[in-house]
Amino acid sequence: MVVNSLRSWLHQLRQEGKLKYVNREVDRRYELAAVSKKADGLYCLQFNHVRGSNIPVVTNIAHSRDLIALALGVRKEKLAEHFAWAQGHPGQCQLIPPGQAPVKSKIMQPDLRSLPIVIHHEKDGGAFITAGLLIAKDPETGIRNVSIHRLQMFSPKHLGILMLPRHLRQIYQKAEAMNVPLDIAIVIGVDPIPLLASQAQVPLGYDEFAVAAALYGQPFPMVRCETVNLEVPAQAEIVLEGRMLPHVRHMEGPFGEFPKTYTPSYPKPMIELTAMTTRNNPIYHTIVPASNEHFLIGGIPREGGLFETMSKTVTCVRHVRFTPGGTCRFHAIVSIAKKSDEEPKNAILAAINGSQDIKHIVIVDQDINIFNNLDVEWAIATRTQAARDVIIARDLPGNLLDPSARNSISDKMGIDATVPLGHYERFAKMHIPGEEKIVLNNYLSN
């Protein structure tokens, strides 16, 4: 079955035995997020009875590399390379009539109270939309930008937004300098491919939905909005249309973010909604912050971007992985096929220059499985000497949400955990011949 919508993806998950239903009533304040966390890495959940709403909620729809590889049709070891290829080979978006777009089944005035917007954590400042694709166009070029931002519900028609210093903030600042509102659309309820594409590490002026089309392997169907000059995915569950107001600020936050800490409350821009469209019987998607889904949707596109960037300067790069322990932002593992003992340090510097988020990089040989944390730690333990193999770079741009950073300024560290050329025998892993063929249950008896 081709995955082209949230519903087709849920059908695929059900066939894989990865979708479970919660049919008892749950409270959207804490309880839904708590149950989701218990299932994190195990199952996608569909909550069919959320208190105060008749709309079901799904979580954990992309909670493992295996599932994301299934959605993309590649082996999980090739996710970074495949995503890098998609960024370099953009596809096309296809505009279709409203009558062919399921998301146009119902057109109504916006009322956020009708949606099961979740309060996730104890100290969160309120209910937040966390899985909304925010679409806007550059007011100078007209080129579309797609990204994900936390959106706090202030009133039935108003949302607050946190914009990190990335493309949407630049686009909004252009509109604000013109003293005009910025048309936006918030898309809730899509399959993993547009979610991943929204996180593509591409320059300003590059349409992230073109990456989605490349990942689909076919044109991406879009439909025009009702009240703003934008197009949205035709197969989406829910679309909120509106405008980001110039020179208007409102206190937003606190909110529990991906570093597993709270970011404080301070004034942020405000969105005023103008319309809402949905499918018949829509499904709402929420991403629980700091879950595997949150980490991987952000992490795998960053792996693809880093793989592409590093490969331009370090030709021996083979695989790239951001680790969940490093929130799929701060820690990177890179395997190389080195030809000189200088290449690991060049790879460290290329990684630091390739991602502002990265704080710690480990470079390993190809015999190390970068998806096995024990294997990586073993390489550090047996192949690294701190005085010789550790590089520290001070006072570089970091991530605004890193609680240890100093006004977004961070120190970076690289570890060379590779074997010196010509000395592999001294560092080789011990091996029992035939161990990999043993099936333990064939040897055991009751």
Automatic annotation (TrEMBL):
Residues 100-290 form the 3-octaprenyl-4-hydroxybenzoate carboxy-lyase-like Rift-related domain. GO terms for molecular function: 4-hydroxy-3-polyprenylbenzoate decarboxylase activity; 4-hydroxybenzoate decarboxylase activity. It comes from the Bacteria. The keyword Lyase applies. Residues 11-84 form the 3-octaprenyl-4-hydroxybenzoate carboxy-lyase-like N-terminal domain. Keywords: Lyase. Its EC number is 4.1.1.-, 4.1.1.61. InterPro entries: UbiD, UbiD-like_C, UbiD-like_N, UbiD_Rift_dom. The keyword RNA-binding does not apply. NCBIfam families: UbiD family decarboxylase (TIGR00148). This is Phenolic acid decarboxylase subunit C. It comes from Desulfosporosinus acididurans. The gene is bsdC_1.
